[in-house]
Amino acid sequence: MSKICEGCGVVLQDENIKNPGYTTSLDNNLCMRCFRLKNYGEYENVTKSEDEFLELLDSINETKDLVVYVADILNVPEDLNLFRERLNNNVILVLNKRDVLPKSVNELKLVQYFKERYTFFNDIIIISSEKNYNIDYLLARIKFFQTTKNVYVIGNTNAGKSTLINKLIKNYSDSERELTISPLPSTTLSSISIVINDYLTVIDTPGYTSNNSITAYINSKELKILNAKKEIRPKTYQIKKGQSLIIDDYARIDYLDGDRNSFTLYMSNNIKVKKINTSRHDTLYNLNKKNISASYNKDLVIEGLGFIKMVEKCNFDLYLDQKINNFLRDNLI
Each residue of 105-124: pLDDT tens digit? Predict the structure, then answer.
């Protein structure tokens, strides 16, 4: 019987160092990748394709087990209908990383926001895996919507799936097992079944890395900068025609037309932002230009980076890598 890595779930092998699951000895419980990640903080990127992720959803659909979909509250995908179309299962939407949002944010309004737009979820819950916030309530709702002992945990990479499962292990089981956790994409390579207790077996699945996210194109150092670990201090700028915002090395916004506007950035505190006079700087003009017209009370979401809350109607040019997805939505906060 094949032995699997207790960190990432891939089958262990000692024949080819270039292939997933390599270990120096099959007596080990971790592959070399997980061992080096756990002990030295080193990371080797292994991606999952969209086709593989869709195949995973199809296989879950056949089981009819409960699904917990974990999303980073700062980087909720543009259209949650896309994955829901593949699943007829009961699904709980878990908005993770509450700890990085300002404490003043009204959670009830956040939940209502998503309930109004996505009626197909059985429940929507805000948590912080890192701070152990609302985990008891989540477990209670899992019990309520369970159809079998098995519960699948799915979502994009870096949403906090494995952190959540480790919290469930610590809080509700006697197991000393811990998954490999990293702020980097694609840490979990294969589905891993973990018995929490007599009525709950959690199945951790490979996270999906979107090719339209900034996180797919930056190195580990940059990713640590983008990954908010502390409560965000929103940065607000009053912008008028002829002014621009430079968002680190990632994006530029040239304000073209409209009343003086309030732009509030909900992004990692480590991201550098500055306001400039448009005509005096040509920074980031090498990026792809997209003209955007926004009506009142919209967010500009840049996948993997966070979002910008706007108040007034306006027109602006966005300079951004053409591979990175961006979209407008109603104000989340």
Answer: 999 999 999 999 999 999 99
